[in-house]
Amino acid sequence: MIKKTLLVSLAAATLLVNNANASTMLERFDAMEKEMNALKAEIADLKAKEAASTVSTTKMVNATDNEENKALTKKASSSNDDDEEDAKLSKSTKSPTSKLESKIADMQDDIDELNKKTNGNHLKFNVDFRTAIENIGYKMADGSTKGNDALMTNRLWLGMSWAATDKISFTGQLAYNKAFGARSGANTTNAGYENFDWITNENAYDDTLKVRSAYFFYKNNTFLGLNTPWTFSLGRRPSTNGHLVNLRDNDPESSPMGHAINVEFDGLSSKFGLERVTGVSGMYVKFCAGRGGTNALPRFDPNGAPYAKDPTTTNDIDLAGLIFVPYDNGHYKVQSQFYYANNLIDAKSSMDPSFKTVGGLYSGTANFVINGIGNDLGEFWDNTTFFVSGAVSQTNPNSGQNMLGSTDAKTGYSEWVGVQFPSLISREGRWGVEYNHGSKYWRSITYGEDTNIGSKLAARGNAYEAYFTEPLVDNVLSFQLRYTYIQYDYTGSNGFFGDTTGTPYKISDIASTNPMAGSVVKEAQDIRAYLRYRF
Description:
Layout: H1 4-21, H2 25-62, H3 66-77, H4 83-92, H5 96-119, E1 124-140, E2 145-163, E3 168-179, H6 191-194, E4 210-220, E5 230-237, H7 245-249, E6 265-273, H8 275-278, E7 284-293, E8 317-328, E9 332-347, E10 355-371, H9 379-382, E11 385-397, E12 411-422, E13 430-438, E14 461-473, E15 477-488, E16 521-534
Antiparallel strand pairs: 1-2, 1-16, 2-3, 3-4, 4-5, 5-6, 6-7, 7-8, 8-9, 9-10, 10-11, 11-12, 12-13, 13-14, 14-15, 15-16
Helix pairs in contact: 1-2, 1-5, 2-5
């Protein structure tokens, strides 16, 4: 007979193995179901064996000496006031069948409880919690300095997922990004910008838990009978920490290319694998579309038209684009991205921070990645990643509106290069260096970048970065030290798309006596250290 503790240990071990090896939650629970059924079958077998021994057990009881039974009964009668003696008597006369049935019942209870905790709880959670301290400094155009010696933040990502079948699944993530001691409802200058939807979970502001992503994901190995694997997803998509920018952030790459777009977004995407059709390694195309701003009156509109269009404010902001990867064999990878966003915004004036619609933006990005420099040059170079990326943007102003200070279309460009090496301390540790440069009219949509001094990839000027990431306890607790330095050539790098916040003025031409010089950042740096727990 298998003991109760052994069965429980076996069930727990099976659950752990399945969690580690099964590719989807459905497969994990299927495996758990099979193990539960096997345990139940073993219990049924034990019951059958006990039933077969019941006859011989009964004969043994009937053959007991009558005088001994009478004496036992008399002893029981004289001990009615002694609960401990009653318990001993009951235990001494309990048949082997009763003992076995009791143990089987206990085992069945444990199995039912374990089954309830697995099959009854389909949604699985994971935790990503980070505590960081940053030294932030700014040098202004008038020569003055500003900064914060110790900005401390807590960031929580609470992930959830469930694969209902091998084709469709759900993934979501709740988040907050909170400065120490901050609380929701704090009264700060331009607080509306702090809660702007594109950066609601990347901005260190308060302790409000918000939805960072929530979407369903469908995949199939064929499309309309063609030998083409494809996927489709819809919801609040994971559109921050995209390709390449994820390296320094030590995160899995999300959908977009981080050079040109890094904001939270609601929309859809559909990917089609072309490798089987073309024979080219890793080739695919991915279509994306979404809405970054909705024009709608409130539910309790005083004029009685809830959710109708409001002609006095900005239009819907929509974006559509595609990602095309012509080649990816795991060692060498070429990627490209193209999109158009309409009805982009800017502040109405320096005195009125509410938004106005100014026009659209075309954007194109291409990059080349080497995962492992050289060929069998040793473990260090074989685990070194190198990338180079280029991006271009062009404005499309609405009639009568200025974009980046001009009614004409303006083209900007950006270049970005980086390399990431093994840490030499551990297999998982990494360190890297990066450089990027942006021109006068360069404009990205990277407001959600995880850099508190502003997006380095949006810089109209030069940005330098070095980082070191090292695991401390397995892959659960890690440490990172990062240094970011930005030298701006033109103003408006972190502004919007119109003339109020986006016009590029050459910083070297702004005299120190100019009234605006005290509010123009010439140089910025951020030294950040964090401890991060992920499980």
